[in-house]
């Protein structure tokens, strides 16, 4: 990266917390997250030079791979774009300050430490006075595929046995009994056939935890659920339920995603 005399890096606060932040936030197809950034000085003008994203480590298939660096992916893609908005309001995801969305694929996600940089200086995007959001959206592996659902199976796919979904009401499953499960994404192909891909092959996004809600600048997209419309939710709201049940638990802390901006003061 060329150092410019008036360059600034805008990064949301946070720190790593051992195993709590060892594995990233899943970016499965239709998943969306966002981080807000404001101008360092509201009286000055800043030009966006680059968008930076750090992939998280994917969950290993076996315990032996627990400490391996897996900041890459084999399934899925990620769209990144900039949207104007204030810190207190949900992102206006339909608005894009870039000429077109940035695309992260398995082919350009090979950096071992996870940091990837997209140079957008030529687009001359100015950071709005009220700030902007970096939005990341998970996509299917192929553009022509359509996301159907997430499936939890009782055994891994072997190419021979038909997939069997977990049935929580199965008479043989006793209350309080644990069972090994396997998570997959189901997508529909143009031919009409369905394909299953393990969720552990899709990208994840690194994040860092913060002690106070005032430091949280991140949002997540909650899809449509029964009697509740799809909407953006601040991470503080997402974590509120956990804090109510476990007020001292580290995993209940708020967090920020590793989505950063390189800006230049004009």
Automatic annotation (TrEMBL):
It comes from the Bacteria. This is DUF3108 domain-containing protein. The lineage of its organism: Bacteria, Pseudomonadati, Bacteroidota, Cytophagia, Cytophagales.
């Amino acid at each position: 990266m060329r150092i410019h005399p008036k360059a600034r890096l805008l990064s949301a606060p946070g720190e790593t917390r051992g195993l709590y932040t060892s594995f990233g936030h899943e970016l499965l197809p239709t998943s969306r997250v966002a981080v807000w950034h404001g101008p360092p000085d509201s009286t000055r003008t800043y030009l966006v030079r680059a968008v930076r994203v750090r992939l998280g480590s994917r969950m290993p298939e076996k315990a032996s791979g627990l400490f391996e660096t897996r900041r890459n992916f084999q399934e899925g893609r990620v769209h990144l774009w900039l949207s104007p908005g204030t810190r207190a309001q949900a992102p206006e995801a339909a608005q894009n300050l870039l000429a077109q969305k940035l695309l992260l694929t398995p082919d350009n996600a090979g950096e071992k430490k996870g940091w990837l940089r997209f140079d957008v200086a030529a687009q001359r995007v100015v950071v709005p006075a009220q700030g902007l959001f970096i939005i990341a959206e998970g996509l299917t592996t192929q553009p022509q595929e359509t996301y159907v659902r997430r499936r939890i199976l009782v055994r891994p796919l072997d190419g021979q046995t038909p997939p069997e979904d977990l049935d929580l009401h199965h008479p043989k499953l006793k209350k309080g009994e644990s069972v090994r499960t396997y998570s997959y994404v189901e997508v529909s192909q143009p031919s009409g056939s369905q394909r299953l891909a393990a969720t552990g092959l899709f990208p994840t996004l690194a994040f860092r935890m913060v002690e106070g809600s005032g430091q949280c600048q991140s949002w997540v997209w909650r899809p449509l659920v029964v009697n509740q419309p799809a909407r953006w939710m601040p991470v503080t709201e997402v974590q509120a339920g956990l804090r109510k049940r476990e007020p001292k638990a580290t995993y209940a802390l708020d967090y920020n995603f590793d989505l950063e901006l390189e800006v230049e003061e004009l």
